[in-house]
Amino acid sequence: MTTLTLHNGVEIPQIGFGTAAIGQWQQDDSFVTDTILKAMAVGYRHFDTASVYGNERALGRAILQSGIPRHELFVVSKVWDTEQGARTADAFQRSLERLGLEYLDLYLVHWPVPASTRQTWEAMESLYDDKKVRALGLSNFRKADIEQLASFARVRPAYNQLELHPYLTQQELVQYCQFHKIAVSCWSPLGSGTWSGVAATEKPIADPVIVDLANQYGVSPGQIILKWDLQQKRIVIPKAEKLEHIVANFSLWDFSLSDDDMQSINALNRNHRFGGDPATAHESNKKIRVPD
Ligand SMILES: NC(=O)c1ccc[n+]([C@@H]2O[C@H](COP(=O)([O-])OP(=O)(O)OC[C@H]3O[C@@H](n4cnc5c(N)ncnc54)[C@H](OP(=O)(O)O)[C@@H]3O)[C@@H](O)[C@H]2O)c1
C-alpha cells in the first residue's frame, strides 16, 4: 500500500475510504459496519469519518470485528463547527469513545470558523502533546485561514482536506499547501456522493474527456480521476458502497497517465463546488447538530 509521509514523519496511506453518508447521512447501523468491513477485506486501512457524520460507532464496530491490529489502521475524525473552541477537547474525547479507540491518527478542524480557530487549535495541540492524536490537520481551510492559524500555531498543520475533483482543481491552494508541507487530501474526489443531490451525469465521472481516457487506458472513469490525484501526491478518500466501486478505487497501480492526459484533466477545471463554500459554510453549519 502506497503511503505519503506527513511533515512530522507519520505515514498516511494515500488511498483512504470515505464514510460520509454510507446508506444515508448520519446512518450508524450494521449496513455501515458491513460496508466498512468489505473495504477492509479489499485492503483499505485508512478511514475518514467525522463527529457530524454520525457513524463513528459503526466504524468502531468494524475496527473491532475486523481483528486488524490498531497500528495497521489510520483513523481520521474531525471537530464540527459547534464543537470548536472551549468544547473541542470534550468533542475529541466523545469521538474516541464512540470509535472505541485510545488514540486517533489524524484529527481535523472540519471547517474554518475564524473566530474560534485559535482556541480550537490550542486544544488540539494539547491532545497532540498528550499523544492522543498522531497528527493535526485542517479541512476546507483557504490560504487566509491557514495564514491566520500560522500566526499562532505551535504545531504546524500536516494535512488539509479540500473539495477537489476535475471541476474544482484549486491549483493555487494546492501549491500553497504542498509548498508549506501540508499534505492535500481530496474530498468528493469523484464529484460527490448522493448527499449532494447532484445527478451522475453532471459529475466529472461522466465528462467525455474522462470517459475517453477511461476507454483508452482500459479502466473506469473513477479510476482515471483518482489516478490523476495520486500522481500529484494527493490523498484520496472516495466513498463507495458497491463492491465493484470499492475494489476499483483501490486498484490504481497498474497504469499511469501521461503528462498530456494529466493536463487535459487539469483543463476541465470550472471552479465548480458541489459542496459548501468555506467562506460562508460556518453560517449554515451552525444549524447542523452532531448526534450523541
Ligand atoms: N471535509 C469535508 O468537508 C468533507 C465533505 C464531504 C465529503 N468528505 C469526505 O470525502 C468522502 C468522499 O466524498 P463523497 O462521498 O461526497 O463523494 P465521492 O467519493 O466523490 O463519490 C461517492 C459517490 O461515487 C460513487 N462511486 C464510488 N466509486 C465509484 C466508481 N469507481 N465509479 C463510479 N462511481 C463511484 C459512489 O457510489 P456507491 O456508494 O453507490 O458505490 C457514491 O455515489 C466522504 O465520504 C467523506 O469522508 C469530506
Automatic annotation (TrEMBL):
CDD domains hit by this protein: AKR_AKR1-5-like
Q: Kindly give the InterPro entries that the UniProt entry links to this protein.
A: AKR, Aldo/ket_reductase_CS, NAD(P)_OxRdtase_dom_sf, NADP_OxRdtase_dom
* Matching SUPFAM superfamilies: NAD(P)-linked oxidoreductase
Q: Where is the composition biased (Basic and acidic residues)?
A: 283-292
The NADP-dependent oxidoreductase domain covers 15-269
Q: Which UniProt keywords apply?
A: NADP, Oxidoreductase
* Spans annotated as Disordered: 273-292
Q: Which domain of life is it from?
A: Bacteria
Instruction: Name the Pfam families on file.
Output: Aldo_ket_red
Coiled-coil residues are: none
The entry assigns this protein to a family as follows:
Belongs to the aldo/keto reductase family.
Protein name (record): Oxidoreductase MSMEG_2408/MSMEI_2347
